[in-house]
Amino acid sequence: MLTNITADSLLRKDHPFRKINDFLDIAPLAAQFESLYSERGAPGTPLQQGLRAMIVHFLEDYSDRQMESAMSENIAVKWFCQFELGEATPDHSYFGNLRKRLGTANVAKIFNHVVGQMRARGLVSDVFHFIDSSAVITKTALWAERDQAISDGEKKLDNTNVKKYGADDQARLGCKKSGVILKENMKGKDRYRDKWLTRVRMPYEGVFSKTPKRARYRGWAKVQLQGFMEAIAHNLRCWLGWLRRNPELAICPFMGEVCPEVEIRR
């Protein structure tokens, strides 16, 4: 018996990827970035499929090799990335090449495009902007590097020499200084100030505290690219959660209420 089975026929109707697909318009972005590709040579993976893959990559927190497997084996990922069941999918090297080709500035445009679509549907507002700084760990163990520095005659491993020994030459040692809430036993603690800061920051710190703190890549530009993509994934998760709590508004072109979580990472 011959049958015509497609990825669309196998994916359940209420799958989150279907909701994101209905909400997110990738085509304008793909058209905007087509100039990044040469007209010569063999045709590669269409850019719209690549951008969709990047979104899934960070939504599901996959590594490049995990993303390769997901695109090859996962029906939902295949469908969202617009591949059919028997169609060949890119290997892991494609994702690194795509990030390099796009660059951080263009990924920022993708982030702004997603936020713009949310704003057009009334999902976000510009009441005020909240800025928070979070440390991103590029490598937690520096004992071997410290020992190497001391054996080379350095007194200690600090920001004057860490770039010579660390795996990421742009990484630095340090901590927050301004706006820090001090512990009870620390000198200079102002309890009234810290109490006020806690009340103001609590709704937002709850979001930032749950975001990934480990750098996937090396170098400031690549870590910033990671931050933009994780912000896109966070916003889409917030939107899906809001939609799950308010299913009656799923077809409304302009939402009457504002989800306060959606644009926190802007």
What does this structure look like?
- This protein is an all-alpha fold and 266 residues long.
- The protein contains 11 helices and no strands.
- The longest helix has 28 residues, at 93-120.
- The radius of gyration is 22 Å and the shape is globular.
Question: What global shape is seen?
Answer: globular
- Please count the beta strands (DSSP E, at least 2 residues each): 0
Radius of gyration: 22 Å
Beta percentage is under 5%
Report the order of strands and helices: HHHHHHHHHHH
Instruction: Give the integer mean of the pLDDT values.
Output: 78
- The separation of the N and C termini measures 53 Å
Report the oligomer: single chain
Number of alpha- plus pi-helical segments: 11
- Roughly what percent helix? 40-55%
Strand count, sense and barrel status of the largest sheet are:
none
Low-pLDDT windows of residues: 250-266
- Judged by helices, strands and strand pairing, the structural class is mainly alpha
List the helices and strands and how they pair.
Blueprint: H1 7-10, H2 16-23, H3 27-32, H4 47-59, H5 64-73, H6 75-80, H7 93-120, H8 143-151, H9 162-165, H10 191-208, H11 220-245
Helix pairs in contact: 4-11, 7-11
How would you summarize what this structure contains?
It is built from 11 helices and no strands. 50% of the residues lie in helices and 0% in strands. The protein has helices at 7-10, 16-23, 27-32, 47-59, 64-73, 75-80, 93-120, 143-151, 162-165, 191-208, 220-245.
What distinguishing features does this structure have?
266 residues, mainly alpha, 11 helices, globular
